[in-house]
Amino acid sequence: MAYIFQLRNTFISRVKYRGNMLWGLAWGVLELLPQLFLWRALYGGKDSVAGVTISQMMTFLVLSRLISEGISLNTGRNFEERMKSGDIALDMIRPADPRLLASAQAAGESLVGVLVRGVPVFLTAMVLVGGIQPAASAAHFALFIVSVLFAVLLGVVFQMLVGLAAFWFLSVWLLDWILRFVSALFSGGIVPLWFMPQWVQKTAAWLPFQAMRFTPVQIYLGVYSVGESVRAICVQALWIIVLYTAQKFLWRRGVRRIVGLGV
Q1: Which bin fits 72, alpha (ψ -120 to 50), beta or left (φ > 0)?
Q2: Integer Cα distance of 127 and 125 in angstroms
Q3: Domain span at residue 141?
Q4: Residues 160/165/171/175 CA torsion (nearest 10 deg)
Q5: Of 105, 113, 201, 252, which has the fewest beta carbons less than 10 angstroms from its beta carbon?
Q6: pLDDT in the model for residue 242
Q7: pTM (2 decimals)?
């Protein structure tokens, strides 16, 4: 129950200040529009490039932005601050698991990102730019929603894993920055994987980052059949389990390290 309250309180605290929310929405639109216009220019009036239509490209960019709002979290750096301040020692004597509390806070931030910033940016882009495809089918849309939820959960677990590195490093800022870049590269956040070299696509298939951003869009566009979409969601679930298991292992090692140092 404590984790639900944490998620709820985080959500309420983030939407309480309308000025910040409006600024975040405006910034999201201003950041997205140049990308949409740039890709339109790169297509040069062609209907498709490398088998990808301009409509698919516009849809990918907008949906990618929506999902990005849910997975761009600061959980790792927040956890680092609690390590530096010593608040982590107080967290450990509380009955609630500090990792789950931090994850609940991150989930609340993700909901704000997707629902309050991502969806309005999506709708605004549809009005200002147009050319956004509807989902391939009702079944694909339902699976897309499930896939987005799994992508957000995967982002939360991954960021918590980054935060646990603070047990061994004085600062996780550089690690966080590097992993954000790697994540954007192998999830299609910089250039869609459709246009990336084969070695990048093959590497991405063995990493969790594709499941955070590229997989949900593939489902929405109908690139995957319904059966393939279900399998892709199962892969997302598998990555969540793998990263959560790694998180538990690092947490146990990290706690022993703190106790050993006398904190």
Answers
A1: beta
A2: 5
A3: 2-261
A4: -80
A5: 252
A6: 94
A7: 0.85
E strands within the chain?
48-49, 52-53
Nearest-angstrom CA–CA distance, 149 and 146: 5
Tokens 């949906």, located at residue:
63
The torsion angles phi and psi of 48, rounded to 5 degrees, stand at -150, 155
Closest by Cα among 189, 241, 229 to 210 = 189
Q: Are 159 and 73 in contact (CB under 8 A)?
A: yes
Mapped onto helix, strand or coil, the DSSP state of residue 208 is: coil
What does DSSP assign to residue 135?
P
Per the structure, how many domains does the chain have?
Answer: 1
Q: Which residue in the block uniquely carries the two structure tokens 């950041």?
A: 31
Our separate counts of H helices and E strands in the chain read 12, 2
Selection from 47-51, 112-116, 179-183 with the highest mean pLDDT: 179-183
